[in-house]
Design goal:
Helix content is about 55%, strand content about 5%. The protein is mainly alpha-helical and about 290 residues long.
Amino acid sequence: MAYESHNAPMVATFSTLSRDLQQTPIWRKLAVSTQRDYLDCHLHITIRKGNTGLLGDLPIAKWTVGLIRKYQDHRGESSESRANKELAYIKRVFSWAYEYEKIKFNPTLGVKKLSIKARQHYTEDSDYEFMLEIAKQSNYWYVWPAMEIAYLCRMRLSEVLDLTDSNELPTGLLIKRRKGSRDNITEWNPRLRAAWDHTITTRNRILADRKQPHPIRAEDRRIIISERTGDKIVLSSLKTAIGRVTVATKQAAEERRIIWVPFTFHDLKRKGVSDTKGDKQEASGHRTASMMNV
């Protein structure tokens, strides 16, 4: 019996299939940010407790359309966007496994994403200015200038991290946008100039303290870098810092007994577009009016 148990074939589970996928050339071709997001999905899916234990350890034969639908609905109660991302990863794992004949049936077929209403929160000036004040007092030197640049230039978080010395023009800041949006230039004003100069001065100080030379090409000289490594700060690190500043802002609001409404970093782009006078679509970089309206 012991011999038979030792030599019995391993029962496929979501955990084993997911890890197998992560060892393939298909996985290695994915963007690093996508890999990180999928690894986070893997963690949340596999540690979910079901009626018979952890979902990650459940034999693949017991995965059904109904099981995935229930997982999706339950996860959506805490975060609809994460529920959809995790469903996308489950679909990717099962589709890959089915294509390579590791499973005989793909239980994700027919399972649809949750419908999510577009976020329409407008960040009030008082809420923004209060968090900006707390950010300036925090240990994360780059959070407040990132907030200001994102708001004033109507930028995404990833676009702020893309900024280099090459974006600085005499007339303003050249914004190279992602996701198909048009590049444009935001003219300098005192607030934008102050935030930009702060990042440049701090960046230069960090490199000087580390005795680390500046990259020769302007497009390689990132403006927001890590004090610990001297390298470009990664998106996940900036998100973590923003999260901690948000928590500190909530605590400060409670201590001062003021009402403060939290907002996301992407809300700053929405606020920037809403507060823009003139052609909002041109300022936002959106190619269509429908994109800008959302």
